[in-house]
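Incident log, structure service

09:12 report received: a user says their structure output differs between two submissions of the same chain.
09:20 pulled the input from the user's history:
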Amino acid sequence: MPLYINTNVASLQAQKNLNGSTMGLQKSFERLSSGYRINSAADDAAGLAISESLKAQTRSFAVAERNANNGISMVNTAEGGLGEMSDMLIRMRELAVQASNGDLTTNDRANIDVEYQELVSEIDRVSNTTEFNGTELLSGASANIDFQVGIGTTADDKITVSFGGIDTTTLGVAGTGVTGADATNAQAAITALDSALDTVSSRRASFGAANNRLQVAVSSNQTIRTNLEAANSRIRDVDVAEETSKMARSQVLQQAGTSVLAQANQAPQLALSLLR
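09:34 re-ran on a clean worker, output below:
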């Protein structure tokens, strides 16, 4: 092998290989310490673009999932208010049936009517005070509410729930009572209360259906988000076993390169010794 003094080709080659193994070792350190195979666009430009898109979708679905859960809470709150109304209407019907008995006096029915009218007032109070996060749900202040359960802008990305007003007027029991010398008013109240109970039951069924839709949306979003996270992991996360193997290889090459470079740097000294 020729010996040169001005240019040490072997040393230059050894330096090049040592730099390569050192860079490989540094890259392995970066990947293993971060847990990512892709830490910058230089690692995999196309992979990074796909990963960022998947990450954006994943986070958006997480928000949509929270939106659906908030919707469930809101619907449950409204349905709970209707449940209270239903209980009161049932009690009012009991009172109307009691007041329909022929052995009662006018004064007896007046006493029964005191509780009846208190329940009428309480139904209106529940209507006006049932709210979620400051939004009235049964007073009619909020007709329809859209819940963003998807990550897009189409109609399929929203679930609309109707929160129409419901009180003694809409139920048809405002102005009813069980007073009087006979059972006429009490009988009329029974008819009105039966209709009111049907209305409340229908509205509760509507809320139940909305609740089921929102729960399906939550489950669907969870499944999609899990799959997106798995896909992103396959693209971006580092394979620890594989990268550890690469790191060990780079460490061996670095040690060997350091030793070889030291020997290559002695070549010019060998050439000088021939001149002595």
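09:41 both user submissions now match this output. Likely a transient worker issue. Closing.
09:42 reviewer note: The first strand starts at residue 131 and ends at 132. The two ends are 20 Å apart (CA to CA).
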